[in-house]
Design brief:
Number of strands: 15
Strand content: 15-25%
Helix content: 40-55%
Largest sheet: 8 strands, mixed
Pfam family, one: HTH_5
Strand order of the largest sheet: 4-11-9-8-5-6-7-12
Protein name: Transcriptional regulator, ArsR family
Structural class: alpha+beta
CATH superfamily of the largest domain: Endonuclease Chain A
GO molecular function: DNA-binding transcription factor activity
Order of helices and strands: HHEHHEEHHHEHEHEHHEEEEEHEHEEE
Oligomer: single chain
CATH topology of the largest domain: Endonuclease, Chain A
CATH architecture of the largest domain: 2-Layer Sandwich
Number of helices: 13
Length: 303
Amino acid sequence: MDSLQKTTMIDLLLRSDKRRKILLFLKEGPKNIEEITALLGSSCTAVLPQMKKLIEKGLVRQENKIYRLSTVGMIVTEKLVPLLGTIEVFENNLEYWAQKDLTGIPAFLRLKLEMLSQYEVIEPQLNRMFEPPEEFINSLKKSTEIMYFSSFFQPCFSGFDQDFLKKRTDSTFIFTKNFFERISSPHSEEYDELLLPERANLYVYDGISSLVSLTVTERFMALMLLNKKGKLDQNLLISSESEAIEWGKELFMYYREISKKIYGDKADRLLSEKIIPPGKKSGYGTGSDLLQISCLRKTKYKM
């Protein structure tokens, strides 16, 4: 197949929403013309020329009145699905993706961005600039499994309620090296503020990444990235779709594999139960408030 033919096939697929829908529909199995016209909401007269073009390019076969993908059509459509999904991810919020430094996402996961097709980018309200989104907090409260990556201490990083912590036995936290050194010092304010589940697994990441924070539970995933200028903005990408959660888990596991697990006294100091006097302020709430791990602020990023 020469370059002209390749270009023609690309044009055939990318320049017609109807043809793309037909291929994706036939991926589910053989269909008759009535089913195809019903899908497109078009007349038979309008659909038949599209079917003819797909047949001429060897993507679709017709047997009597039934249409099905050819072997070539199956291969092309299989590759078309992630491409269209990736395009959809970018088109949903092109400004967000254009401004972000994506180097903190490994190449193999950048090639799976179609798994984030259903997501929302949340910008904090001016009167709640330092508070995590309400949907984030509500979902976190209902989660039993917590995977969390953090690259710096946020000013509203307040404590978990102890009763809440004791119910969370499947938790893993990854902190960057400088962050971990600060929060593990008993003389630091961060040490007093930080409460973690007693059975949590702790890891330290000794590297540089544009990933600011990542939260993954069985209910949702939430992501913060630096922008291309190396600064932290206030936008949080969040999704509760199963594919997005799976993508978030893969990203978390990638960082866990290249991080060092913490044992001994350093881990014990962070995981031991700390008592917060009733009514003492921690972050922007009281000591019984949920961990505000997603407070957003505009600041120069520091590892």
